[in-house]
């Protein structure tokens, strides 16, 4: 029986998870092309950790997706004998019931989860590292944790190879040719070579416009973001289990954890507020004004950080859709090509589930959750094919 050739462009969490799912389905000719290396420094999936949290304001859809995704992460742990996820609990701080923390608390209670509502005296006793006086809606959710991002990527790469798939690094795709649906999709590489596929998945993170700009004008903007790493903090106060992951309005952070194998042990924090426009591959210039603003707010929230060392500031890029929901859909006019973009800085926790959903699109099977929310059609009035494209 003929086996379809599937090529996935991009070896971040989405591309690798999709390849893993397709191979598990029994599709054998699966190749992942990565322009640099898995977990390279400018990749959206790069780094030691990602937050797995259930809090999504008054949105009920994403918490249920988190639940499904966590089950799959734990299954992958069992399958690979790797420790990919560490429970941490999440402290939420907001102002009023209409705050993100307040809405998330009520939504999760309605869904059957059991987050706690705390008062200031309980915060002072359980989490004295935080100065919470300026917040009046305080929650703690034990159903949250930290994914070990780099290890997740390396584990998936190994699993793909064990299942007979191929991951090719230093293979940059510069164009996709698919004019004739009766012929194979042709992926042109920067070396001048060409690879043929029956199906293709585009999961290139912030590089999506460079690859598809002649195909489609996607409703996705790119923003510059920063991660801050603090050193020289006492483990007994800022490591697990004493210190949880936290969210305070747009701020979020992690307890002390190692930055890679034998790497330094740092506390990581950031702001989810969308930054200035950015372009992939450009030499990032750190906006010191933004860093000062974020660090001052972190100092106000966690006073001990003022005595810590800001050991590193890391720059990366969000690919932000207009409505901040993902885009998982077929390329208009060619269902052989699947788009995965618009991840808006919150996709890693869903990575293993998103791979399954994209695998369903490739195989044209019924997905485990409806994908209407992630279809391009929702932007019908806000995006368009380039004028020279043929409908």
From TrEMBL:
The keyword Flavoprotein applies. Residues 5-360 form the FAD dependent oxidoreductase domain. One of its GO terms (molecular function) is flavin adenine dinucleotide binding. The keyword Oxidoreductase applies. InterPro entries: FAD-dep_OxRdtase (IPR006076), FAD/NAD-bd_sf (IPR036188), MTOX (IPR045170). Keywords: FAD, Flavoprotein, Oxidoreductase. Its cofactor is FAD. This is N-methyl-L-tryptophan oxidase. The lineage of its organism: Bacteria, Bacillati, Chloroflexota, Ktedonobacteria, Ktedonobacterales. The gene is solA.
């Amino acid at each position: 029986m003929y086996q379809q050739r599937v090529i996935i462009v991009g070896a971040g969490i989405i591309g690798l998870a999709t390849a893993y799912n397709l191979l598990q389905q029994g599709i054998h000719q699966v190749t992942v092309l990565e322009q640099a290396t898995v977990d390279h420094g400018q990749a959206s999936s790069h780094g030691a950790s990602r937050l797995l949290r259930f809090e999504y304001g008054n949105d009920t859809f994403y918490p249920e997706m988190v639940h499904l995704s966590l089950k799959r992460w734990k299954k992958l742990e069992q399958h690979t004998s790797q420790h990919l996820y560490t429970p941490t609990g999440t402290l939420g701080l907001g102002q009023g019931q209409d705050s993100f923390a307040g809405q998330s608390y009520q939504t999760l209670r309605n869904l059957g989860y059991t987050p706690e509502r705390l008062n200031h005296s309980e915060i002072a006793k359980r989490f004295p590292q935080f100065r919470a006086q300026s917040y009046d809606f305080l929650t703690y959710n034990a159903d949250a944790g930290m994914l070990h991002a780099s290890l997740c990527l390396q584990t998936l790469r190994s699993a793909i190879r064990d299942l007979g798939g191929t991951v090719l690094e230093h293979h940059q795709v510069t164009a996709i040719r698919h004019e004739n649906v009766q012929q194979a999709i042709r992926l042109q590489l920067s070396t001048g070579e060409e690879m043929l596929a029956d199906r293709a998945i585009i999961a290139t993170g912030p590089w999506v416009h460079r690859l598809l700009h002649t195909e489609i004008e996607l409703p996705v903007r790119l923003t510059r973001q920063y991660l801050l790493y603090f050193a020289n903090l006492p483990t007994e106060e800022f490591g697990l289990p004493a210190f949880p992951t936290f969210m305070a309005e747009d701020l979020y952070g992690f307890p002390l954890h190692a930055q890679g194998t034998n790497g330094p042990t740092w506390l990581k924090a950031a702001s989810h507020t969308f930054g200035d426009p950015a372009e992939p591959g450009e030499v990032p210039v750190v906006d010191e004004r933004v860093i000062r603003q974020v660090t001052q707010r972190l100092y106000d929230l966690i006073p001990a950080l003022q005595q810590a060392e800001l050991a590193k500031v890391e720059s990366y890029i969000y690919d932000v859709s207009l409505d901040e929901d993902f885009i998982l859909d077929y390329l208009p006019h060619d269902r052989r090509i699947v788009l995965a973009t618009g991840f808006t800085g919150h996709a890693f926790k869903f990575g293993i589930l998103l791979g399954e959903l994209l695998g369903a699109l490739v195989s044209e099977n019924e997905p485990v959750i409806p994908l209407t929310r992630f279809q391009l059609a929702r932007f019908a009035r806000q995006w368009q094919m380039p004028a020279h494209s043929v409908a």
